[in-house]
Amino acid sequence: MKFLILIPSYLWKNTLKRWCENPISPFSKILIPVLLSLLATLILVFFIETEQQLIRQLQQVDSYSALISERVQMQSHRGVSVDKTLAEEHMWKSKYGAANIRYIRQPNIPVKWNGSSNIPIILYTASEYHSFVKDGGATPEILFLNSIKLSRKRYETIELHQSRVSARCEEMPEFVQDHYKGSYVLAVPIEVADRFVAQGFTMTIKGSFDNFQDVESFVFDMESYYHAERRQIRVVSALSILEGIERIKKIQYYVRVGVVFSCGVILALILGTIAWLEFRHESYLMALLRSFGTPSWILLIHAFLENLLLVSLGIYLSFIAWQPLYGVLKGRISIVNLRSASAIDLPLLDTYIIYGAGLLGVLVAMIPIAFGLRKQPGLILQ
Amino acid sequence: MKVSISNLTYRYPGASSYVFEDFSFEVSSRITLLKGYSGCGKSTMLRIIASLLKPKKGVITTSSDYKFGSAQFLRKEVGFVFQQLNLLPLASVKRNIELAKKLAQNTSQASSENSDLWVKQLGLEPLLHKKPGQLSGGQQQRAAIARAFSKDPAIILLDEPTSGLDDLNTEIIKKALLENIADGAICIIATHDHRLETIADEILDFNTFLPMEEHIEKMV
User: Fold this and answer.
1) What interface predicted TM-score (ipTM) does this complex get?
2) Hey, how many other C-beta atoms are within 10 angstroms of the C-beta on A276?
3) CB contact B75 to A (< 8 Å)
4) What is the number of structural domains in chain B?
5) Do residue A381 and residue B100 have CB atoms under 8 angstroms apart?
6) Between the CA of residue A244 and those of A129, A212, A240, A382, what are the distances in Å?
7) How far are the Cα atoms of A267, A312, B169 from residue A359, in angstroms, in the given order?
8) Does A81 or A150 have the greater pLDDT score?
9) Which strand (E) or helix (H) includes residue A166?
C-alpha cells in the first residue's frame, strides 16, 4: 500500500510546482469563493438584521401583546363574580407568568372630582397595592392616581356613585397610564368593592409577550376558555400581522437557502471549468501515473482535495472579512438603514450551509475530471 | 511468461479503418521484435498488451497470476518504455526508478541487486541524482529502460527504444537486454531499427499482414 503514500506525495509536489509557476490558478480558486461567500454571508446577515429590526419595532409598539375585554353584568352573568375573575387571574398568571398578565377591572359607576366627571375607576388586589404605593401602610386604601404630580399622601374627596370617599393621592403607575390616557384614575381595593360592582364591571386582560408563538397560544387559550364558559369577549391583537410576518420568515428561509445554493452552483461551474483546463494540461502526467498502475480514484481524490483546500481557505477568509466589510457598508447603504454589525453573529446553521455549498461546488467540479480519467492512457501517452 | 492474443480487433476512436481485425498471435520467446512501417500498429499492439488501450473485440490472456488489465497487473507485471520515454519530470533518475519498484512492491534484496545491475549496465550511476530535464536524449532513454526493468516485470514492452540513438548507446542497450532479462520474462520490442534484429529470438513482421503498396495506399 506504499503507492497510497508515494503517488499522493508526488502529486502534491507537482501541485505546489504548478501553483508556483502559475499562481493565478490557485489565487482565483481562493478569490472566487471569497467573493461568493461574502455575497452569501452579507445577504444572510441582511435578512437576519431586517428580521431583528422588525421584531424590535414590533416590541417597541407592544405588538406582541393581546387585549381581552369582557363586560360583566353581575345580575345575569352566569355566576361570574369578582372572586371568579380572581381565580381566573391566578390560573392565567400561573400558566403564562405573573409578569406577562395584567388584569384591570373597571366598575361601571360614575366618578366625579373637582368638576371632572367620568374619571375611570379600577379595582386592585392586595398584591398590586405596592405597585401603586411604594411606601404605603399595611392596609390598602382608596387611591387617587394622577399623572399631574398632585402632592403625594394628600387626600382628596371624590364623589363615587352617590357617596363621597376620601382618596389618597398617588402618582399614576406606568401600566395604568398605558391603559388610560387621562390624568386621573381612582383605584379601589377589591375587598371593599362589592357595592361598586353591583352595576357590573369591564374586565380587561392584557397579555404581553416577546414572541409570536406565545401570543398565538394565549389568544387561542382565551378564546377556547371563554367559549366553553359561554362568555362574550372581545380580542384585540396584532396576531394577523404577526402571522403574516411568520409567513414571510418561512419564505425568507427558502430564499436564503436558494441564494446560498446558487452561489454553490456558480462556484461549481467556475471551479469545474478551471479544474478541467488544468486537468487537460496535466492529463499526460495522469495517464503516465495510470500506466504505472495507479488507480484513477487516487488521482480524482487528489484533485478533489486540492480544490477543497483552496475553496475552504477562501470561505474561511470571507468569514474573517465579512464583519469589517459590513461595518464599512452599513454607513453607506442608507436606504435600508442597517444597524451595527457587531451585534450580529452569523448563525451556525448558515455557516454550515455556506461550507456545504462550497463542498457541493467542489464535488460537482470533479465531474468533468472523472469523465476525463475514463480516457484510456494509451490514447494520451506516446 | 506467455501472452496470447486471440481475434483482436481494434480501431482508434474516430478512425474509419481498423488497426487490427481478427488478429491472433502468441508471444513466448525471450525477446520478440515487432517490425514494420510507421503506422502499421506496432506501438498500438504494445499498448494493448500493456492494457493501456481496450480492444473492441478479442481476448488477451497471460500466464500471470494477476488479472489482465487490473491495476496490480500493470504495477507488478508490466514494464513499459514509451517512445516519448515519459519519465516523471519532477523526480530524479533514482526517484523514477524507486517509484516504479515501490509501486510494484519489489523491495527484496534480489530486486534491489537487479535494479543496481541495470543502473550499472546502462551507465547511469553518475546520473542518478539528475532530473530528466538535465539529461541528453540517450541518457533519458537509458533511464527509462532502467525504470522499466528495475521492477522485475514479467512482461517488458519497449517502443522504439533506440530511436535516434547512436551506435554506442544502441550497443549498450542491446548488451543489457541480452544479459539481464530475467528467466521466464518476455520482452517485446516494437521497432524499425534493423540493429536490434540481431538480439531477437523471434521477429514478427507486420509488413507481411499488410504489403507496402497497400500500406502506402492506406496512408494516402
Assistant:
1) 0.84
2) 17
3) yes
4) 1
5) no
6) 40, 11, 6, 68
7) 10, 8, 53
8) A81
9) strand A163-171
| Residue (of A315, A363, A321, A317) closest to A33 by Cα position | A315
Is B102 within 8 Å of A6 when comparing Cβ atoms? yes
Those residues whose C-beta lies under 8 Å from the C-beta of residue B70, and which sit 6 or more positions away, are: none
A140-197 per-position pLDDT tens digit: 888 888 887 666 668 888 888 778 888 888 888 888 887 787 788 899 988 888 888 8
Can you give the pLDDT at residue A340?
46
Asked, for residue B17, whether it belongs to a domain, the answer is: no
Q: What is the predicted pLDDT for the residue at A95?
A: 93
Q: Cβ contact (<8 Å) for B86 and A294?
A: no
Q: Are A235 and A67 in contact (CB under 8 A)?
A: yes
Task: Give the cell for residue A71.
Answer: 363586560
Asked if residue B13 is part of any domain, the answer here is no
Residues A73 and A54 in one domain: no
Strand partners, A122: A187
Can you give the residue range of the structural domain that contains A29?
Answer: 2-59+245-381
Q: Do residues A141 and A75 both lie within one domain? A: yes
Contact assessment for residue A313 and residue A30, using Cβ atoms and an 8 Å cutoff: yes
Of B76, B78, B91, the CB nearest to A10: B91
A377 touches chain B (CB under 8 A): yes
Most confident of the ranges A50-59, A183-192, B109-118: A183-192
User: Taking Cα atoms as reference points, which of B18, B19, B21, B17 lies closest to residue B8?
Assistant: B21
Query: How far out from the chain centre does Cα B50 lie?
Result: 9
For A219-257, what is each residue's pLDDT tens digit?
999 999 999 999 999 998 888 778 877 877 777 778 777
